[in-house]
Amino acid sequence: MEARLVLLPGDGIGPEVIGAAAAVLRAVARRFGHVFHLEEYPIGGTAIEATGEPLPPDTLQACLEADAVLLGAVGDPKWDRPDLPVRPEQGLLALRKAMGVYANLRPVRVFPALVHASPLKPEIVRGTDFVVVRELTGGLYFGPRQEPREGRAYDTMVYTEAEIRRVARVAARLALKRGRHLVSVDKANVLASSRLWRQVVQQVVDEEFPQVTLEHMLVDAAAMHLLRRPTTFDVLVTANMFGDILTDEAAALAGSLGMLPSASLGETHNRHGFPRGLYEPVHGSAPDIAGQGIANPLGAILSAALLLRHSLGLEEEARAVEEAVERVLEQGYRTVDLAVEEEPVGTREMTRAVEKALTQS
Ligand code: NAD
Fold first, then answer.
1. What is the pTM assigned to this prediction?
2. Given this model, what pLDDT does residue 81 score?
């Protein structure tokens, strides 16, 4: 296969982890005989410094023409003041919107070798393997708002039937390929938008996915059950803000934020007939460790695996990457965020170990 992939390293540790993911993609291309054209463009703070804009037109154009996009992270303390007119995260929000990616898939898998890196007891966390599907372009982060003025401010959580239906379909389709168990998370006892959410998800599953078992759960209960019985979940679907919070909680289960990949999908397809996705590790730009060569690259590498699976249809290649990651963890390689008693390795050494495991499998 020939594919055009756009890389957006971004800020902080972004360039370090995207460099790692690019090396792994090149190793996949060599081993399986594909041609991947990897092109880098600026986004976020780096783009503001270079061009004055967090999402320069050239970057956007390249993303809209690519088969898939892999992003590192955006953000830096020097741009963290919310009153600044131009901020790095505006670039990411604008890109998600322009690409029309409304479903954010966040797989949470506790690798056997990392059971002891989790803050939860091994018997609770062992075997955890679920995916949160977070609605990404609607809800509280995009509704009408008023910035603080005369002692008053507000945000509004708005959902339409169409927005709920399309993300419910993505989640139910995913559940069909996995354990056929879908948990829809809302706050229907308090919020009107959640009552619509519950009604529409129920309707989609009843009418289109009768093989999927659907359970509704309040977000506060879900927050608790994810910690008490994480292995009972298969696929969860939820609104933008609930998903934002629950996925960071879920990230702690996996031992480190640095381990988690994500895929954002919409309805536009690339020339190979697959969704033109936006792939990114869940973590941020980690300015506290940027430039030190110690960032965990596995979240970005596992995001590249999701890209191979969802945007290029290369399931065997995606699995080969995931198995390579599992193998290096079994061999005892740990970056600083994962090390319990082990001597930590740097980003480069971890990446080389994954490349080696990939070529030897
Ligand atoms: P963060 O994820 O950047 O860091 C949280 C903690 O986890 C830090 O201690 C960091 O060192 C550690 N960490 C994160 N990723 C790691 C990795 N791969 N390897 C090892 N350790 C890792 O979150 P934050 O500190 O809240 O935010 C920092 C900046 O990132 C802010 O400007 C924020 O706006 C931005 N941010 C961007 C995204 C994104 O681009 N999608 C997401 C979250 C935060």
1. 0.92
2. 80
Q: Are 92 and 30 in contact (CB under 8 A)?
A: no
Identify whether residues 246 and 331 lie together within a single domain.
no
Q: What is the pLDDT of residue 318?
A: 97
Range of the domain at 45: 1-102+257-361
pLDDT of residue 70: 98
Name all residues whose Cβ lies below 6 A of ligand 1. Answer: 13, 17, 73-76, 80, 89, 92, 257-258, 280, 283-289, 295-296, 299, 335, 337
Quick one: 211 and 313 in the same domain?
A: no
Whole-angstrom CA distances from 41 to 11, 15, 290, 297 are 12, 11, 19, 19
Cα angle vertex 17, ends 320, 68, to 5°?
A: 65
Computed from CA positions of residues 101, 103, 104, 108, in that sequence, does the dihedral angle turn out positive or negative?
negative
Give residue 219's pLDDT. Answer: 98
pLDDT at 34: 98
Low-confidence ranges of the chain (pLDDT < 70): none
Q: What is the CATH number of the domain that holds 264?
A: 3.40.718.10
Question: Are 123 and 229 contained in the same domain?
Answer: yes
Number of domains the chain is built from: 2
My answer on whether 242 and 274 are in the same domain is: no
Are residues 287 and 209 located together in one domain of the fold? no
Q: What is the structure's pLDDT at 320? A: 97
Asked, for residue 108, whether it belongs to a domain, the answer is no
Q: What is the identity of the amino acid at 7?
A: L
pLDDT (0 to 100) of residue 118: 87
Question: Catalytic: which of 97, 129, 155, 248?
Answer: 248
